[in-house]
Design brief:
400 residues; D-Maltodextrin-Binding Protein, domain 2; 2 domains; ten-stranded mixed sheet; 10 strands; 43% helix; 16% strand; extended
């Protein structure tokens, strides 16, 4: 009975201390102390989940992390995330290699992620991104710190405009979406409008939202790089009559290549027989320049081995048709190929040369002399030995 009464008095005292906070302002910390202590006691009473190491899973931790590779890709509606997913699908090999694609904001942000975010070894980006970090967001020695494994597909620059826009000059002073900050559009769009001498009002929002603002007339256009055809546009009914604006290649010869859109790519935007000229920028599989003695180099080296050895599979279904146009040996202007990738290319070239090297013709006279030494005075046995030798020689020839 006395014990219960004591508990009631303690509860009343605690409630009075809490409710009395509004009456005295002498020491808020002192007022909070009992409540804080109560919260700490409650937290301490919650049992903590045992860690993997404490549960005896240390070997599993080491095994699953040993060959893990972080791959920075892009935004969910972009091309990079699809490419990253296909790379993981083709190369992943259980605990022998585990490529983990990461959703990011895209080309510009991926270089920062590659340099500064732990666990990221490789990133997808655009070829013109190094120029950005040399002139705009200046990063010291960027060309020595970031190299490339391979050029990938060409990403097409899509400039979609409202029906009343007939030329670049019509966009002067109007709102145009450059997609999210850090994306490929945010990198390439300023270059495009600057070189064409047109000043627009750039807005950084995602392209799906920009399409909606184009419908209302708030935006005059949007820039969205990506492999054609882009689901962003093919899934859009285009009842408003939006169209693609041509981009002249002659102003963009350093990092870019000429590209074309047709009605086969975008039947809802382009009439049969018409073509829209545009530009494309190569996508680069970038890598941090890990030193050979580092643990991360070991992982990247294995990624390179798998990527080159399994590349032929990328050029078959179910992978995107863009893989068929990729030349692994293509050089990217202004970039340095990672030395491990360069060595792998040399090995592949040497193997291909050896395979195509014509084998010396059979020395029939020498072969018959050898058969005669093995089976002297037995012409039938000599002939059998000679024929077996010819069959073996034919088996050694490379298959065409």
């Amino acid at each position: 009975m006395h014990a219960n009464a004591g508990r009631v008095l303690l509860v009343i005292a605690a409630m009075s201390m809490v409710s009395g906070r509004g009456l005295t302002q002498t020491s808020p910390l002192a007022d909070d102390l009992p409540l804080n202590q109560l919260k700490i006691a409650q937290i301490k009473s919650v049992p903590r989940a045992p860690t993997a190491a404490a549960s005896g899973d240390s070997q599993s931790i080491a095994k699953i992390n040993k060959w893990a590779i972080g791959l920075a890709t892009g935004i969910p509606e972009g091309t990079y995330i699809r490419v990253g997913g296909e790379i993981a699908r083709n190369l992943n090999n259980g605990d022998e290699l585990r490529v983990i694609p990461m959703v990011t904001t895209g080309a510009v942000d991926n270089i920062k992620v590659l340099l500064y975010l732990k666990g990221v070894d490789i990133a997808l980006t655009n070829a013109d991104v190094l120029e950005h970090f040399k002139t705009v967001e200046k990063i010291p020695n960027i060309e020595k710190r970031v190299h490339y494994i391979s050029e990938l597909h060409i990403t097409d620059i899509h400039l979609l405009v409202r029906p009343e826009i007939g030329s670049f000059k019509d966009l002067e002073g109007k709102k145009v979406s450059f997609n999210l900050a850090g994306t490929g559009a945010a990198l390439s769009a300023p270059i495009i409008f600057q070189r064409l001498g047109v000043k627009v009002e750039p807005v950084h929002i995602d392209s799906s939202s920009a399409l909606e603002k184009m419908k209302s007339g708030e935006f005059a256009g949007l820039v969205n790089p990506g492999g054609k055809p882009q689901p962003l546009f093919t899934k859009f009914k285009n009842e408003q009559g939006f169209k693609f604006l041509s981009i002249p290649y002659d102003r963009f010869t350093e990092y870019y290549v000429p590209r074309v859109f047709t009605s086969e790519d975008y039947p809802a935007y382009i009439k049969p027989g018409e073509k829209i000229e545009t530009i494309g920028v190569p996508v680069v599989l970038a890598v941090f320049n890990w030193p050979q003695e580092s643990d991360r180099f070991r992982r990247v080296e294995r990624f390179i081995e798998y990527f080159f050895d399994r590349f032929e599979a990328f050029q078959k279904p179910p992978y995107h048709s863009d893989w068929k146009s990729i030349n692994l040996a293509a050089k990217v202007p202004g970039w340095t190929r990672y030395w491990a990738a360069e060595e792998k290319l040399k090995q592949m070239a040497a193997a291909a040369a050896a395979k195509s090297q014509p084998r010396p013709p059979v020395d029939v006279q020498l072969a018959r002399q050898q058969a005669a030494r093995i089976a002297p005075n037995d012409l039938a046995e000599q002939e059998q030995l000679f024929q077996r030798f010819l069959e073996w020689k034919r088996a050694q020839q490379p298959k065409q």
